[in-house]
Amino acid sequence: MKQFQKLTAGQKEAYDRKARELSGILPSTLYFESVYAWSHTCRPFFREIDNYYCILLEDESCMERYYYMPLGTYEQKSFQIVIDKLMAGECKTPGQLRFRDVGEAQLPFFQKLTGYEVNTEDNRGDADYIFTAKEFRNTLESQEFRYNRNYFLRRQASRCRPIDSADGKNIRTLLKEAYCRYHICSDCSNGCLIRSIDLFLEQQKTMDWEGLEVYAEGILAAYVVCVPWKDTLMVLFKKTLRGYRGLDEYLHMEMLDRFQKDMAYINYTEDMGLYGLRKYKEKWGAYQLNHRYRVTVRTREEKK
Fold it and tell me: Are 52 and 8 in contact, with CB atoms under 8 Å apart?
């Protein structure tokens, strides 16, 4: 642990440089913006080993300590060396390393490690929903969704504008009304959403995010925060007030019109195994699931 350093906003450039070397779809949890937003409860540390950027997390919400998959260009020989070094000097449980959110493209490198037993867990609730931008827009242009959107525009004196870091108070008010009043704090198993938003807004100039707010009759009724990455737009935060028919459809269309640009895909993150959230995400059109794996690496001696 002594060789790992606290991951701060100043590490974004180095982090992103190594993340861009990864093959396949980047899991939403490994976007630097996501790691930083939840750093108040899931404390991240980093260490560069050879040509890999290793992330260690101390998760207060579940009292666990684990790694994200190393960032970099995967090659079996060099990856074996990194795992050997982590196993030799960094694992809290002797002979065991635990990784979360391993991508589909990187999983085979774990499975081909020599000298270890590798166990893999695939939880559907961890998988990101990936839509093509075209399919997402087609859904929004369908008769039902278009009618709802127009209904909102006819009935509400609305305006849509970019989020500014000074909007924290309005966003906190919306969160308390749209989410906190219907939940208890223990429902936020990953940490306080309000604290995450505050932390995120503090670093607006550092992070690569784009956000929108929708006001209805002068009241902040919805917001969305997206992070562009290569050809994908990841939806990091989103909340809407209840009782506004068509608000969701309007917000999503504005998001596409303003932020899609050259983005071919929409990453709508995971459903956490929640039935209601799953049905909500599924309604936006045809999708594919980008699975994120939990991997445990044990020495063969420890396994026996």
Answer: no
Buried b / exposed e across 59-74, counting CB within 10 Å, b at 16+? beeeeebbbbbbbbeb
Determine the pLDDT at residue 63. Answer: 79
Whether residue 303 has pLDDT greater than 50 = no
Q: Are 113 and 290 in contact (CB under 8 A)?
A: no
The two structure tokens encoding residue 129: 């929903």
Contact 140, 302 (CB under 8 A): no
Q: Distance between CA 34 and CA 71 in Å, rounded? A: 15
pTM, entire model: 0.92
Give me the half-sphere count of Cα atoms (radius 13 Å) on the Cβ side of residue 201: 22
- 63-80, pLDDT tens digit by residue? 789 999 999 999 999 999
Beta strand ranges found along the chain (DSSP E): 5-6, 42-49, 52-59, 64-71, 96-102, 116-122, 128-132, 158-162, 210-216, 219-229, 232-240, 265-267, 288-290, 293-299
* 78: Cβ contacts below 8 Å, ≥ 6 apart: 50, 51, 52
SS3 155: helix
